[in-house]
Amino acid sequence: DHALAGSAFAQEQSFTIGPPAITNQPHPQTIFAGDTASLSVGASGTPPSPVVPEVSVFAYTDDALEEKKETTLEGLSAYRDHPGTVWINVNGLGAQAAIEKICLLYGVHPLIIEAILSTNQRPKFEDFDAYLSIVLKMFYLSDAGDEVITVQVSLVLGKGWVRSFQEKPQR
After folding, report:
1. Which pLDDT tens digit goes with each residue over 62-108?
2. How many Å apart are CA 25 and CA 40, to the nearest integer?
3. Please, which residues bridge with residue 90 across strands?
4. Which of 3, 14, 85, 108 is deepest in the core (most CB within 10 A)?
């Protein structure tokens, strides 16, 4: 568990995204039936920026509430021994590796991680010794108000902690 503690799951990066450009065209070739053709094409461009989930932490006791955005596993691991209740909410499931690291940091089973990341799950409830796993569907109206949108929300709950994973970033 502690080997992940210093790993960042979000890096501040800035990209200018432009369309790809073909830099090398294939050379004309004469190929006869049964021969193998070999083509080479070069392209340049900027890859899209990495998907980084939005992670919020709500830590509270009878006397205090702390709410903050968190960007590192080290920051999240600081809440493992919190004396009250800690709710970690993750908006956006596009960064699979980050979701896996967050879940593994808190001992979530790989099959539950798979269910969180697979957004075509039916609603379900599973009771494990250390926690409960719940997969739900959330409904909301499109901005135009003419369509019902369905998204997956996964909850993992244990004694003194809640982890929620929402398919889409917060609206």
Report:
1. 999 999 998 788 888 889 889 999 999 999 888 888 889 889 988 89
2. 7
3. 55, 165
4. 108
Rounded to 5°, the CA angle 100-105-111 comes to: 45
The alpha-carbon radius of gyration of the chain (Å, integer) is 22
Enumerate the β-bridge partners of residue 100: none
**pTM, 2 dp:** 0.69
**Rounded CA separation 92/42 (Å):** 33
Number of Cβ within a 10 Å radius of residue 22: 11
**Pairing state between β 21-24 and 42-44:** antiparallel
Alpha-carbon gap, residue 76 to 85, rounded angstroms? 13
Buried b / exposed e along 136-157 (16+ C-beta atoms within 10 A):
eeeeeeeeeeeeeeeebbbbbe
What does the pLDDT read at residue 68?
93
